[in-house]
Amino acid sequence: MRISTLAASAAAALIIASPAVAQDDRAGWPNSLTIGTASQGGTYFIYGTGLAGLISEELGVNASGEVTGGPVQNATLVETGDHEIGLVTMGPAYDAWMGNSELAPGLEHKSMRALFPMYQTPFQVVALASSGISDVADLDGKRVSVGPAGGTAATYWPIYFDVVGVSPDVSFSGANDAVGQVKDGLIDAFAFAAGVPIAAFAQIAAENDVNIFAFTPEQVSAILAERPELAGFDIPGGLYEGYPDAQPTVALWNFAVAHQDMPESLAYEITKLVMENNERMMQIHSTAAETVAENTDKNTFLPYHPGAVRYFEEIGVSIPDELKG
């Protein structure tokens, strides 16, 4: 009798431990999936690898985050089906949607579908205090990394340099490499874009006397007049050692996207998992405070995956008809 009881208990435990999605609803699901992130040391990498772990744990799909060049490359990797999920900022995503991707010019990325909003990406710069660089205007003629080629920072910082009227010597590198180059004097500054706090900025600020800055209010106004897809953003004070005050800058929204051929049930479960576990997501990265259903309206052009639409409408969030994929 006791053996039967133990067997029943073990069976029940297995049922409880197994993924919550019924096998009948998993038709067409892949055994594994890849999430395109960005360089190590940036927010995308932390957010994406954490998301992959959550999917693996809760949905029983072997998910992994992969280092990439960032949103421009992620959009194309999803479009071509090489990655199942990509993390993108909406500026590069719009360019890709319209066929103006720097990586795949002429290819309209019409297979991309939005899953859920992530957070805003503001733009900041770090330089050693000894350099005397404390304003974007000071970057004229200086050696400046703008992150990995194809990333959001690499796409937008040259635009900002034009608006502000400076001509730095631009190079490309991942976040960890770039801060190392700043510390070693190989470059003068690192101009980046990521959810704050940027891990690489926090690290260099804790170890060195640095200047971390963004834009003046006048520079913000000039940039917004040129690029309407951007929004003004105040970086909260206290994120980096020695910086108690807020800083004005500009920002782009980030979304997780998938290919239109992702099974509807999988897109539904991933969206539900993220939206209903905000505390877990914030443990991955604090930027996930903005990973909430109320921010679905920050996407104005990219159709949502039918699975995501089904979830959002179930919880009473309306998706415009023109954005139902």
From TrEMBL:
Signal among keywords: yes
Domain of life: Bacteria
Record's keyword terms, sorted: Signal
SUPFAM superfamilies in the cross-refs: Periplasmic binding protein-like II (SSF53850)
Name under which the protein is recorded: TAXI family TRAP transporter solute-binding subunit
Signal peptide: 1-22
Source organism of the structure: Arsenicitalea aurantiaca
